[in-house]
Structures are given as structure tokens and as C-alpha cells.
Amino acid sequence: MLNDRSSILSLLETRRSAKPRELVDPGPTQAELERMLTIAARTPDHGKLFPWRFVTVDDDQRDAFGALLREALVEHDPCATIAHHNKEDEFAHYAGQLVVLISAPVADHKIPVWEQELSCGAAGMNLLLAAHAFGYVGGWVTGWRAYSERVRRAFCGPGECIAGFIFIGQPGRDMEERPRAPLATVWKPWQPPAT
Ligand SMILES: Cc1cc2nc3c(=O)[nH]c(=O)nc-3n(C[C@H](O)[C@H](O)[C@H](O)COP(=O)(O)O)c2cc1C
Question: Residue 36: how many CB atoms within 10 A of its CB?
Fold first, then answer.
């Protein structure tokens, strides 16, 4: 049990993201992916609204995804260069498994949309942790694509939006640590206001 605990703690203490463009195959198997998404769906959610969804884009759909991004880019930036169009095509073909995280808040509900959006972010974080636990690495990105109405319509229903594109694969190179917030800058005991 102690060993279990120390390996879980070590897992939590070592997770980090990869840059999706640096990922290499293979991504998770179908069975691993299902288990990761099950873990991701086990997320705190006030009101049991499940205000998030996962949409997977499979390898044989990457060409169609690339075509969508290039069409959307014309709307987003009519002056976009060929290099930019090529970059979008590369994005659509990054290695690993692509999971599009959708924020699906229930409108006009007593649970504020802000809380539902927090739950969506937590689901994304859980997915990254699950990927790490399986020995993969994830990378969560947004960029203009996540805010393009054309891309949104291709993934989302009314009132939904794209919370991120999460790629899950193998790190293509040694991963560097990045600066973490020193605890003293993000934690302080509460001081009750003077009366
Ligand atoms: C909602 C969200 C959107 C992000 N979008 C981008 C992005 O578009 N481009 C980028 O380089 N990083 C983006 N990031 C940050 C990367 O995921 C980054 O690699 C990560 O925060 C590194 O932290 P970690 O090592 O603790 O995972 C985003 C992060 C979040 C949570």
C-alpha cells in the first residue's frame, strides 16, 4: 500500500506536458483510450451535469481535419501565407491520439456556467494525468482554431465550445522541466479582515 501511494505521488509530482508538435507515435490503444476517458470523466461536477464531452479524431480523419482547419484559416485570416496553411495541415497530422475537449455547459441552470467551465478544465487535467499514468504524455493546446466559429461548428452543438485539443502520444525527445510557481507565491494562510 505504501509503495502504491509513493508511486501515485511520484506520478502526480512528475507529470508534465509535451509540445504536441514534438510527439511521436504510438498513441494509446483503443482499450487504453477508453480507460483514460473513463478516468477523465470521473471529475468533480456540481449538479451532475457532465458539462463536458470528448471528441476523438482518428488517424483516418486527419486529412478531413486538416481541410477543415485550412478552410477556417481563410475566414480567420484571409491573408494567411501558404506556410501558415501548411502549419495547420501539420497540426492536423500531429502524432498520437487527438482528443478534442468540449465545454458543454447547461445554460439557465442554477449551477453557474463558471462552475461548469471549471469542471471542464478539471476533466482536461484528469485526462492529462490518466495519459501520464499509462506512460504517455499529453499536450493541451488551443490557439485561433479553438475560437474559430467554423471549427467550433464542426465539433460542437449550440452553446458548446472547444476547450482544447489534447494530443496524447510519446515524447519525441527528452522532456524539459518548466518553471513551477514557488509555493510561497501561490499559498498563504488566510488573514481574516480587520474589523
Ligand atoms: C486551456 C489551455 C490552453 C492552452 N493552449 C496552449 C496553446 O495554444 N499553445 C501552447 O503552446 N500552450 C498552450 N497551453 C499550455 C500547454 O498545455 C503547456 O504545455 C502546459 O501548460 C505546460 O504545463 P505542464 O507541463 O504542467 O503540463 C494551454 C494550456 C491550457 C490549460
Answer: 26
pLDDT tens readout for residues 134-172: 999 999 999 999 999 999 999 999 999 999 999 999 998
Q: Is 141 in the pocket of ligand 1 (CB under 6 A)?
A: yes
Nearest residue CA, atom 18 of ligand 1? 17
Ligand 1 site, residue 12, Cβ cutoff 6 A: no
Q: What tens digit of pLDDT does each residue of 67-113 get?
A: 999 999 999 999 999 999 999 999 999 999 999 999 999 999 999 99
Q: Tell whether ligand 1 has an atom less than 6 A from the beta carbon of residue 140.
A: yes
**What pLDDT does 3 receive?**
76
Peptide bond into 192 cis (omega under 30): no
Distance 40 CA to ligand 1 centre (A): 17
| Helical packing angle, 113-133 and 30-40, nearest 10° | 140
